[in-house]
Fold each of these.
Amino acid sequence: MKTILIANQKGGCGKTITAITLSTALAQKRYKVALADADNQKSALQWLKQRPSDCAPIQSLNWSQEKAIGDAPKNLDYLIIDAPGALHGEHAEQLIAECDAIVIPLQPSFFDIDSTRRFLKHIQNIKRIRKGKVEIYLIANRVKSNSASSKIIQEFFEKVEQQPTAWISERSLYGQLAAQGLSIFDKTQKNAYQLQQQWQPLLNVLIDDPTTWF
């Protein structure tokens, strides 16, 4: 089983949408997937409750209480963890101890960039990361093409010397589908397909699967 943590200490950066999008992509490929919600707001759990029964199955895990962290079925292929906002200290170490990779979404705003910079600095002190046992991937989220903010976020990536694995455009379709318990990977229409393509670079580095995704 590979465990992927979706985290940042900044709230509202798109962690839950990232978690449900990755979970659905994997479920559509017929992997056994669970989505663990470690946030007290339980947004991912609410999304799963709305998910239609005829969609690709995703198991639901409630990790909102710290004592539940690590409790997962043994037969999973992938476990996606939706981390809480303001993740730090022992809680961060506890979740990172469970993961093989961390995906850090951030939006092109001063607050997201500043928060992400501090989050990256904090987690570098965690033993598991310091020893190189956890992969870290950044994704630029809700980006508007040719905007001044996209240039600002590019400067940030250059400063931290790590380019984003994927650039994800801002689209209302994400929210519209989430309200129905769905994601873009549940759809085959052209507009969904175009968005799916933006996630392919992240899927390529996270998932060892040479078969065609779309």
Amino acid sequence: MIILDENTRCIVQGATGKQGSFHTEQMLAYNTNIVAGTSPGKGGQKLGPVNIYNSVEEAKEENPDINASIIFIPAPFAKDAAFEAISQLDIVTIITEHIPVHDTMEIVEYAKKNDTIVIGPNTPGVITPGVGKLGIMPTHIFNKGNVGIVSRSGTLTYEVANQITNAGMGQSTCLGIGGDPVVGMDFADVLQRFEDDDGTDAMVMIGEIGGNAEENAAKFISKNISKPVVAYIAGVTAPPGKRMGHAGAIIEGESGTAKSKIAALEEAGVTVASAPSEIVKVIKDALK
């Protein structure tokens, strides 16, 4: 397992909103260690067993061992919430989508200065089966196992995890880096953690068109990763100049195409599946 373990103690920022309250209940139901929530002006209230505070600082005064946050704050206010969490915590997961790119750049820069891990924005989060989740993913498709998944796409993550589970295997940790052009953790950050993790024997990397994250990951894999990596790139048939789903998934010129990403990964020794349904077979062959 990586990032999320038995020592993770989390605060939910925006816990009393519609999304925040729903997913707090879901995370608690999965035994995630949610110890507090924030909602300015609603300090003193409770959400089930969770105490609500006006700020992260106020929550930390009563719960000094809080070390992680998950953010369900609307995009215009997400930067302030992220800065508040980054200044005091080790892990910050930003579920919010449509955060302006400039705001995200400032968030990522501030996180580097504070040595804080940022997952997202625009991410389904992170789940360690059997331990907990900081995110919005449906838990019934995950199973404890030895395959690490890192992905730019939420729904494809679920499809691949479900196929791995249905094949009688499971996941060590599954992490969505987010679909925006600028994100906190990138593929290389997560792959290195899987490489160093005794509980991960193989990795699945799910990419998509747009940007150069996958090409950068390929260079990193060729130099640093010894465990088997299986990749899948979504958007093979996407026409140039057309945005596909995520804000980050747009092809400009020759860079960012599925073809260029697949070529880079194959050159790095990664097996690239042509369909999500092939991934399980490739993993099984790699782990024989």
Amino acid sequence: MTEAYIVGAVRTPVGKKKGGLSTVHPTDLAAHTLSALMERTGVDPSAVDDVIMGCVMQFGPQSMDIARNAWLSAGLPESVPGVTIDRQCGSSQQAVHFAAQAVLSGTQDLVVAAGVESMSIVPLGSSVTVALEKGMPFPFGDKWVERYGTQEISQFRGAELMCEKWGLTREDLERYAYESHQRAAKAVANGYFREQIAPVNGVTDDEGPRADTTLEKMAALKTVREGGRITAATSSQISDGSGAVLIASEQAVRDHGLTPRARIVTLSVVGDDPVYMLTAPIPATQKALRRAGLTIGDMDVIEINEAFAPVPLAWLKETGADPERTNPNGGAIALGHPLGGTGAILMTKLLHELERTGGRYGLQTMCEGGGQANVTIVERL
């Protein structure tokens, strides 16, 4: 049976809004990660078949196929193509899936899966501004309205709906967020992330974790929606960052003398209710485990994106996963969520944590706009 192996994974530190990465052009940010990946794996870059890069706000400095531009900006061979994809927050996790599928199909042997987002330079919502200014109900047209009506469709409403459905209180969310910061601060202090990070612009560590935050500070914040439960403290941080993963076939491993670090066990992607928007990691996880013939108890490390605290809390309730194995070094509430870069960043974190702890199986998932989710299960080798 053909296998797809992960032979390299690297990321930048995740910078906070107006932080140390906020002045770095997103193309240069991604180029830095691609250069680091090629250097660390020792692969001849001309042997790479394709570069697949996730980016959500493909507007302004992140437009014009940033995958191709970043590769060229890194001084890498012109013969290697690049394509930029958008599956919302899961864009670079989908890049990993497309890369693995290309290798598993036998049509390509070495594929870079990457992601980038500079939310400081290209703010959330930039890509729809022009359409809104022209009075268009972007991105939802008449046919959408026929099906779903004119109700509000937003991640903030979806997060509140999840709280109602799963009976989550504001205090539940804040306790979870506090734990995320504590885990992340410990990981940074202990150097757990050092090997996976390629420092850039003088930034060596993730900037988001707040070791000094308290439940009292969180309780003092205003909710995003009047009468709601979600606050800035229980939401992912606006961030800048990039990650890159190299996927190789068995033939490429032999030809280039590479050492497989993990194999792709299975992949899943599903759609769920677009109004709730954030619930799809639950069915996507169930589908992936069925395909792999594994259980949630088999997973030694789990990375689920903390877009909002109710996402992992509801997922934990439904799957029965071990909270201690889930986001063991904190998640996006503490570390940040640079949209299109997060999928590759989470895979990098997952791989390194499996190696650090000696775990065997790892699972990655994240909610995505439109009510979608990807799940990737890997086995450390």
